[in-house]
Specification:
The chain is mostly helical. The chain is built from 10 helices and no strands. α5 runs antiparallel to α10 and α7 packs antiparallel against α9. The model has no long low-confidence stretch (mean pLDDT 89).
Length: 205
Amino acid sequence: MSKQNFEKKLTELENIPQELVKAPSQPVDVTTQEAEDLFVWAQEDKQVLVSIGLDWSKYVIDLPIRTGACRYAQAIWNKERYSQEEAAKAWKEESPKAYEFRNDLLADMRFAFRKRPDLLGRVRTIAGGDGNADMIQDLMDISVLGKGNLAEFDAIKYDLSRFDLAEQKSDSLAELLAKANGTTLDNSKAKDIRDRAFTHLKEAG
């Protein structure tokens, strides 16, 4: 039901002026429970509340819908947050091994191309950069250079599957790094919608 409430409210949430959007001032689960309690208590005082001008439809009948939307928006943000945190953890574990693999491949290339100054120059170019993005590109460049000069590697009976592995690692690491970096959590779309759902709920609660 929370998902349906969220979908029903999404356009309204997106249209809340940015200057009115507030981040939660207390845990969202506490806020949603308070809203549910308030909905029950309000039933007992309906006549009094309506008599003093409360818009019953807007602030009471709508309250469970706002609550469900907020709960679902919080779940979406939690999922994105932990997905990014998990990717960052995986990157921290995998990247040192990837750097070592790249360095091993470059050393192998220097040996295979020891009689080819032209190819050694290309190896130096590949090895010249630094940083995570450069390492990922290096793996792809190494794969292409290696597959384009198989004779030199056949001569030293090299395991050519390492070039396929370099290509695969380049692709998978690029995806992992992008996910680990992602959009910053504070500025993410999921967090923005969660904050809007919280703001909308607090308006009624």
